[in-house]
Amino acid sequence: MAGNASPNPSGGPNAGSGPGAAGESADWRGLKHDVEDLRETAVERGRGLMDAARAQAQDYAERRKGDAARSVNDLAQTLRDSSKTFDDRPNIKAFFDSAAEGLEQLGGSIESRTFADFYEDAEAFARRAPVAVAVGTFVAGFIAARFIKSSSLPPDGSYGRFDDRIS
């Protein structure tokens, strides 16, 4: 292949040589411009898609936040109702009432805060206590593994057949 037969897209020594090099160079610049426009459009659409997904996730979290707050408040009310059975034992009643009050405060906190606030608090905790987060993650993984292992079928397929294991 001759060195002067085709233009060099990098603008090197062969970029302007050969017959029709000016037209081909203009074509190359046009193609380069079109590709750049496509890239910018793709980036803009990607950002729009990410913003829409983020908004949808935050909306979902806000809706679920209300459900969680109601559940916590219901649990607090149940504890308060349970404490009434301990009227003759003031120490136990005080314990139940204190736990119910703490749960009511938690429910109020859940309702009044945004998802971003919870995320920031979790991130700050992870930065303050990385060992606690690592241990918690390990424990959660261990519990999940035990749960999955206990709910799977034994390799011999004897799940539910007690009489076969007695021998």
TrEMBL record:
<feature type="compositionally biased region" description="Low complexity">
    <location>
        <begin position="1"/>
        <end position="12"/>
    </location>
</feature>
<feature type="region of interest" description="Disordered">
    <location>
        <begin position="1"/>
        <end position="34"/>
    </location>
</feature>
<protein>
    <recommendedName>
        <fullName>Nutrient deprivation-induced protein</fullName>
    </recommendedName>
</protein>
